[in-house]
């Protein structure tokens, strides 16, 4: 009998299941679990989007569209990006609609990488970047940002580029998952001044752009348009994770080749979700505002509570995650601690080490959850700390 597994792509054989998915699945098997691991809005997709899509679904027969997406969709994306971020993309040649930003990342890397290329990834980072790079026979170069307030600084970037002449791209994700940290215009400009000296792509994953709290989001594509491949989508801005609508934007000649890869991966994204996206981008430009206000309220309650419990936390400026340093009195093995919290408190928080170098000793907590669950989380953490002999600063409690 043949061992057909060994006939598979040797690189694919090295790819392991995503730790965050395995951990979440395990947590959900615990009855009564308070699950704070999910990076998904707990809001419903706005009603006007659902109503519009329902009408379209009943009135139209859904078919293939052109691979880059219906002209009405690419036009809506172009208008949205212009209105929100002062970007100017030609909807007929510089935009591709994708199956979420997850597909955008893979498609972009597949289109630009050659075997042996390197891709710079500031860490902690979202978990798909490294495996996607490896699957495309390139090498991730992880840069630990934990000592620079979870931001890539210009000196660190320049040193990395000098040490890695085969670097083909930098992946920049802000507001960041898992830390919630973002960049202001001056910080981005400083990075752009370094990058413009090198023939390197900037893959700017700005999926959380509409959830920027400290200041108006600045797209990297406004600073270095000829080198930037912009990734964005509707999952976070319009609570549309299940609709799977992302998009890639960039220089015309680059986008033309990325499109060829995209159309091999998927002929086109579903027409019904394209219709939903058109409605969201055209008539729902302010949909995020209500959600953003609630996220900031939740963030502040969680942030203040964690500080009182003795966690060191960089205050999130965007997205909906807090990256909390485990108090020194507890084990710094974040995986062991997270497993203990499930077992003893029925509380699921993600280990920071799942997000790469610089994440060990941290826990990621999503505040895309109800206010009730956030308060329960703080109560459970306090109980766990007390049970382990750790004093807290919460008034009236030790």
UniProtKB/TrEMBL annotation:
Limits of the Aminotransferase class I/classII large domain: 33-376
Domain of life: Bacteria
Keywords for this protein: Aminotransferase, Pyridoxal phosphate, Transferase
Pfam families on file: Aminotran_1_2
CDD domains, A to Z: AAT_like
PROSITE patterns: AA_TRANSFER_CLASS_1 (PS00105)
EC number: 2.6.1.-
Protein name stated in the entry: Aminotransferase
Family assignment from sequence similarity: Belongs to the class-I pyridoxal-phosphate-dependent aminotransferase family.
InterPro entries per UniProt: Aminotransferase_I/II_large (IPR004839), AspAT/PAT-like (IPR050596), NHTrfase_class1_PyrdxlP-BS (IPR004838), PyrdxlP-dep_Trfase (IPR015424), PyrdxlP-dep_Trfase_major (IPR015421), PyrdxlP-dep_Trfase_small (IPR015422)
Record lineage: Bacteria, Bacillati, Bacillota, Bacilli, Lactobacillales
GO MF annotation terms: transaminase activity
Entry keyword annotation includes Transferase: yes
UniProt organism field: Bombilactobacillus thymidiniphilus
Enzyme class: transferase
Cofactor(s) annotated in UniProt: pyridoxal 5'-phosphate
Keyword Transferase included in the entry's annotation: yes
């Amino acid at each position: 009998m043949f061992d057909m597994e060994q006939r598979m792509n040797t690189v694919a054989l090295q790819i392991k299941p995503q730790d965050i998915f395995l951990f979440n699945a395990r947590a959900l098997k615990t009855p009564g679990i308070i699950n704070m691991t999910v990076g998904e809005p707990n809001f419903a997709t706005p009603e006007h989007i659902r109503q519009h899509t329902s009408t379209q679904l009943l009135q139209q027969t859904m078919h293939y569209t052109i691979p880059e997406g219906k002209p009405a969709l690419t036009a809506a994306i172009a208008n949205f990006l212009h209105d929100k971020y002062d970007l100017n993309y030609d909807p007929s040649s510089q935009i591709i609609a994708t199956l979420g930003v997850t597909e955008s990342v893979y498609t972009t890397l597949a289109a630009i990488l050659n075997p042996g290329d390197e891709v710079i990834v500031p860490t902690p980072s979202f978990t798909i970047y490294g495996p996607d790079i490896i699957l495309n026979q390139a090498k991730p170069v992880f840069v630990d940002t934990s000592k620079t307030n979870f931001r890539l600084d210009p000196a660190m970037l320049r040193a990395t580029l000098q040490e890695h002449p085969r670097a083909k791209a930098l992946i920049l994700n802000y507001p960041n998952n898992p830390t919630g940290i973002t960049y202001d215009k001056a910080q981005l400009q400083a990075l752009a001044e370094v990058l413009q000296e090198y023939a390197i792509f900037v893959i700017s994953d700005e999926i959380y752009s509409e959830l920027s709290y400290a200041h108006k989001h600045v797209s990297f594509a406004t600073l270095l348009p000829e080198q930037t491949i912009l990734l964005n989508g509707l999952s976070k801005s319009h609570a549309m994770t299940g609709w799977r609508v992302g998009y890639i934007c960039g220089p015309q000649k680059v986008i033309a080749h990325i499109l060829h890869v995209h159309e091999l991966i998927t002929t086109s994204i579903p027409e019904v979700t394209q219709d939903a996206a058109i409605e969201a981008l055209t008539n729902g430009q302010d949909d995020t505002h209500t959600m953003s206000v609630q996220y900031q309220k939740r963030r502040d309650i969680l942030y203040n509570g964690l500080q009182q419990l003795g966690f060191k936390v960089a205050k999130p400026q965007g997205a909906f995650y807090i990256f909390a340093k485990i108090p020194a009195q507890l084990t710094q093995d974040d995986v062991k601690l997270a497993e203990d919290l499930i077992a003893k408190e029925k509380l699921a928080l993600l280990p920071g080490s799942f997000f790469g170098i610089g994440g060990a000793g941290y826990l990621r907590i999503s505040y895309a959850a109800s206010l009730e669950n956030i308060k329960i989380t703080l109560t459970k953490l306090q109980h766990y700390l007390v049970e382990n002999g750790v004093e807290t600063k919460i008034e009236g409690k030790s």
